[in-house]
Design goal:
Blueprint (H helix, E strand, L loop, with lengths): L4 E8 L9 H13 L4 E8 L7 E3 L2 E6 L7 H18 L6 E5 L17 E5 L4 H8 L3 H10 L3 E4 L2 H10 L4 E4 L18 E5 L9 H15 L3 E4 L5 H10 L6 E5 L3 H9 L1 E6 L8 H8 L4 E4 L4 H4 L5 E4 L4 H12 L2 H15 L4 H17 L5
Parallel strand pairs: 1-2, 1-5, 2-4, 5-6, 6-7, 7-8, 9-10, 9-12, 10-11, 12-13, 13-14
Antiparallel strand pairs: 3-4
Helix pairs in contact: 1-13, 3-4, 6-11, 9-12
Amino acid sequence: MTRDIRVLHLGFEDPLMPGAGGGSVRTHQINRRLTGLGFEVTVLTTTYPGAQERTQDGVRYVPVGIGRGRNRLTRLLGYIARLPLEARRRRRSTDLVVEDFFAPFSTMGAPLWTGRPTVGMVQWLHARDKARQYGLPFHWLERQGVLSHTHLIAVSQGTADKLTSLNPDATVAVVGNGIELESLEGEVTVGRHVLFIGRLELHLKGIDLLLAAWAKVVPTIGDRLVIAGTGPDEQKIEHLIASLGLADSVDLVGWVSGEYKRSLVHSARLVVVPSRHETFGLVAVEALAAGTPVIIFDIPCLREVVPAGCGWSVEPLDAGALAREIASRYGREADLLDAGHRGRDFARTFDWDAQAQRQAHVYRSVLAAPVKA
């Protein structure tokens, strides 16, 4: 009998951590399926208050850090400090290492220190934006880290193109995200509120642009903007809402998941994804699956997951154009229903089982590849 392929996944975020992003969801959805395809998977994540080793859906999770990880900075620093040691400790029981890219510099150059065949799993590639935000050369670290990888998986073609420009010698496969089948259930209807779901990062996620647009449009449509999520800029967003006089028309509902999240998306009239940068846009696909049309900025990656007919795109980073599009589409119920049905049909193509099969093929191909001298 063939022994399972033992994967050590450097996964960064635990999907059970409050405020965890879509990347951790993808990690779990793929890995739980890989366990049924001949893989044994251990995921190393940052620690956080209450974190414990566990096995969930056949996937082993091990928190790594120093102390309890009470805030983002201590979680990040503890993970960086301990990860190489923890990976080396497991070297003999590992066939393949998978390194999830993470903020603020994407990659720790894992192939340089794992001692095992290593694949870069790229769900985050925005170090230049973080470099501008903090005035530190994170983009340089990102570039050097990408150059250390021979094998990479991107979640979208736009991300794959960027990786290839950074490292033309790397083999880059595209394996997208999927959706839960439950999100395709229910009748397609025209909802009421306008919705944003995502990590509360004011600049990267374009929440400042969304609020500027909402300030222009709310007197016309007279409804509510719901912002769901948690993140480092929650207080800044609260202050911006107050300074724009939007406290009576914007609801901050915190982190959402499960049935509440599905209900919130299904009952929305429009979902807006105003990101300045994205590697995939899982929230957009989840909205389309629910039959809720999406408005995006016309940027790579997002235009891959919101095709014409399923939603609408506007000139990137133009808050005025975003406001006009929201106002224009909000009252057109027939158009919204049509886009909702088209979007649901498109979203059916995002199948977690199929994506897991593709990722398994990449892993096996890497292990079968000859070792370079």
